[in-house]
Amino acid sequence: MFRTIKPSAASADRARLSGGETLEQLVRAEEGLVSRRIFTDPEIYRIEQEKIFERAWFFIGHESEIPNPGDLVTRPCGVDPVVLVRDDEGVIRVFLNSCRHRGMRVCRTDKDNARFLRCPYHGWAYRTDGSLVSVPAESHYGPGELEKEKLGLIPVAQLGIYHGLIFATWNEHAPPLKEWLGDMAWYLDIIVNRTGGIEIVGTPQIWDVDCSWKFAVDNFTDNVHVFSAHQSLVQLGMLPNDPDFACHGNMITTGNGHILHFVKGAPGEAAFLYLGLPKEMWPLFDKNLKPAQKEIAAAHGISAGTVWPNFHWLQLVTSGEMNGHPHAYLNFRLELPLGPTRTRMYSWLAIDKAASAEYRKISYETYVRTFGPGGIFDQDDMENWEDCTIANVGPAAKRHTLHHTMGVNRKTDPNWPGPGRAYSDSYGEMTQRAWYAEWRRMMTAADGAGK
Ligand code: FES
Ligand SMILES: [Fe+2]
Questions:
Q1: Which of 22, 108, 344, 401 could disulfide-link to 336, CB 3.0 to 4.6 Å?
Q2: Residues 81 and 156 in one domain
Q3: Residue with CA nearest ligand 1 atom 4
């Protein structure tokens, strides 16, 4: 059911770089060979702006972040700033956060509730539905000089919502969100609808890292790094002291570049069943999930996934303190590229609406101790992303490839009960290869429309 479009000769020509190479030569995803150049090269970064960040669907936020009319948050859609707002009628809208007059940001706060969006520069004011309502010094415009009805805020081309997750795209030719997600929606059900829905806690943590956005993405479904990069957590008794701790599971690619895994963690331990949620919530899984979805959720403790290109979930079971008990939390992540070697991270905590006050507290505490800019996991990861970036900026490094061959010959697992291509053993690089293959397809597609 997924589309595969081979790049045309014309589009391949357009993808030829100034040195004469093509992106097909640089990204041999099926062989697991990816040029280091794609991570730091300003020319490739410029092509990404047009081919990916103007074309793909992007996660903007969750409905629970803007429950009331006038509620708004500011976010990126691709690399452009947007306002996500619930208008006076309760309709969710996403606009370019830029005034129609001189382009000033109309909202300069992360989160607010407003009747009108008033530009701080000359005072043009917009309703929450984006229409321009008032212009100071309006009487000084002559007849026909100001057509207010044509000067509303610029909306995204398409907006889609799945179980409260709000996505948008600047691309009017992109397939609808349902088609874009494809089989990934089946797995998103397990993550966000297992107990009847989730909600965001507070506001996202936002911070900048000196790294290529792609190194952060690459890390997200990488299980092999856990025992090495996070060895200090093993030594503190916050992770199992087992090098194969994260290998008991399946890696899955669902098409369109979407990728995920389910990991058992410490097999058989109750803390690692039902995605680590407390026992009193387990009956809700039966109520909200299909039998195969429930079977997967019940047998696993950990899951991470990437909705192509840059939205991730992390369902983790870990301890938040030395030799403590493992607890679960659900983390959403987004990378906003600020340049080829600088990335803004967004990190949300989500909690099942049905969760008890006790679970909310322990889930929150475990999350802030382990993830986000002050989290012990994230600090380990960020150091690796930054050093991978530094080491691959130079011309000598850029002549060589990186190595993503683990499981390149592995057969799919016929017993996996879910859709997509599943591979047993969650130590493998099938997910990264699928992500880079989609990156290459989008970067070389004639229309770049993801179809
Ligand atoms: S830039 Fe917004 S009112 Fe002038
Ligand atoms: Fe990590």
A1: 344
A2: yes
A3: 122
